[in-house]
From TrEMBL:
Belongs to the D-isomer specific 2-hydroxyacid dehydrogenase family. This is D-3-phosphoglycerate dehydrogenase. It comes from the Bacteria. Keywords: NAD, Oxidoreductase. Residues 11-319 form the D-isomer specific 2-hydroxyacid dehydrogenase catalytic domain. The keyword Heme does not apply. Residues 116-291 form the D-isomer specific 2-hydroxyacid dehydrogenase NAD-binding domain. It comes from Aureimonas altamirensis DSM 21988. Pfam families: 2-Hacid_dh, 2-Hacid_dh_C.
Length: 331
């Protein structure tokens, strides 16, 4: 908690910290800030909520279920420090008439940079080459690399992150095609090719990169059937949500050489199990869901979330564009 005279309103953050500028912004609007360690069990967070009775909840990490949401009778708003809300029980929040807001666009460039970095590392086979040279091998005589310029990139999703990823990819000389049934006009306006369906998209690209929310419709969108439509040169990159990919099917395809590689920044369960099927797969690069966590984006996410909280607690209606609705998003 911020030291000083107690304020009349409280927010609980499911992490050890947020950007100091966001704390100062909240304090300046009569809101004290409290913290709950990341990935604490729901019952631990619920107990902390019951103890503090906060007016707002800022979600960074951990699962926010009905027990957490119902533990504070003063709770008026839940805000995600980021964009994805699959760790929040939206239906439980809606049942108590508590809006859930996303910090839209706050980390779009950071995630796009991470996605493109994974693409480049996979295209250039950095992990395998690094391991070979450190192991005393010198694969230069037999190595043939892949080009970035002219690589065919297929994006699933054209929200803020998808748009930034496309912009960076085009600057590198990639040919970009996008599948997003909700943004065909925006894709065409950006001068990019539009795929009519996801099956057509993945059958004719070198890289498939995921940039859509996890919904009832998109859960396991990359399953065994879709992977079968990809060529052996295909790379899969996921900096969105782990539930978009059937991880067992992906592990099997990597093991069998049916696709060329994968770069993952998110997983179906986080932290993932250390004995899961993916870890034995070749040509796999993984990072711990940190694509959106840069110095700049962390400040922007926290400040955006803080402004949402201040607005709602001051009696304003929640920002309609930022609302996460149970009808469209999957908890």
């Amino acid at each position: 908690m911020t030291m000083g005279k107690p304020r009349t309103r409280r927010v609980l953050v499911t992490h050890n910290s947020i950007a100091p500028s966001a704390v100062a912004l909240l304090n300046a609007h009569d809101i004290d800030v409290f913290f709950s360690p990341p990935y604490d069990a729901s019952e631990v967070v619920a107990a902390r909520m019951a103890e503090l009775q906060p007016d707002a909840l800022m979600v960074r990490q951990g699962r926010i279920d009905a027990s957490v949401i119902g533990a504070s009778s003063r709770l008026k708003v839940i805000v995600k420090h980021g964009v994805g809300v699959d760790n929040v029980d939206l239906e439980a929040a809606a049942a108590l008439d508590i809006p859930v807001l996303r910090s839209l666009g706050s980390n779009a460039l950071a995630v796009a940079e991470h996605a493109v970095s994974l693409m480049l590392a996979l295209l250039k086979q950095f992990p395998a080459l690094d391991t070979a040279v450190k192991g005393g091998q010198w694969p230069k005589p037999s190595f043939i690399g892949r080009d970035i310029a002219g690589a065919r990139l297929g994006l699933i999703g054209f929200g803020a992150i998808g748009r930034e990823t496309a912009r960076l990819a085009v600057a590198l000389g990639m040919d970009v095609t996008v599948y997003d049934p909700h943004a065909a006009g925006e894709i065409a306006a950006a001068g990019l090719a539009v795929a009519d369906n996801v099956e057509a998209l993945v059958s004719d690209v070198d890289i498939v990169s995921l940039h859509c929310p996890l919904t009832r419709e998109t859960r396991n969108i990359v399953d065994a059937g879709l992977i079968e439509r990809m060529g052996p040169q295909t790379l899969i990159v996921n900096t969105a949500r782990g539930g978009l990919i059937d991880e067992a099917a992906l592990a099997a395809a990597l093991a069998d050489g049916r696709i060329a590689g994968a770069g993952l920044d998110s997983f179906a369960a986080e932290p993932p199990s250390p004995d899961g099927p993916l870890w034995a797969a070749p040509n796999l690069i993984v990072t711990p869901h940190v694509g959106g966590v840069t110095k700049g984006s962390a400040i922007t996410m926290a400040e955006t979330a803080a402004r949402h909280i201040i607005s709602v607690l001051d009696g304003n209606p929640p920002d309609a564009r930022s609302l996460a609705l149970p009808a469209t998003l999957a908890a």
